[in-house]
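Structural prep section.
Before we set up the soaks we want a predicted structure of the protein with DQA in place, mainly to decide which crystallisation condition to try first. Input record follows.
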Amino acid sequence: MNTEARQKTILVIHGPNLNRLGLREPEVYGHTRLSEIDTQLEMLGRQWGLQVSTFQSNHEGAIIDQIQAATGQADGVIINPAAYTHTSIAIRDALLLLTVPIIEVHISNIHRRETFRHHSLISDVATGQIVGLGINGYYLALRALADIIGASPSTV
Ligand code: DQA
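Run finished without errors. Recording the tokens verbatim:
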């Protein structure tokens, strides 16, 4: 009998314009590039025995395809839908297909910004939301997911 457990997988989805992190409004979003965040998430994941796969798109449909592909594959999802947070019923509906925990992350504190950013169409679909803690929000989200899905620190 194969007693080895399948490695748990976390999918991280970054929405539109987040491919320009580090260059885009650094006073709001900081100086760190998205590739550095992804590398750090993959490394932190390894410490928890988790496989982290990351995805960024500027296209709503591509994000929806990725969420659908995660059904039955990912054990948890971290998503920063960026501007689609405030507009996309379609991304919300796709997230409703998932039965795994979902953490919504926003680098900036959307509640301190323009009123159109105050409302998220995702937050009541997500397990939890982290806003305003900068890029640390991604790392905290991964830490929380590790706990929620019962991952244990890797010994290798
Ligand atoms: C954001 C906040 C959104 O309002 C904005 O459109 C983004 C980034 C954040 O991470 O703070 O693109 O999701």
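Observations: The beta strands are 8-14, 50-56, 76-80, 102-106, 128-131.
Flagged for discussion at group meeting.
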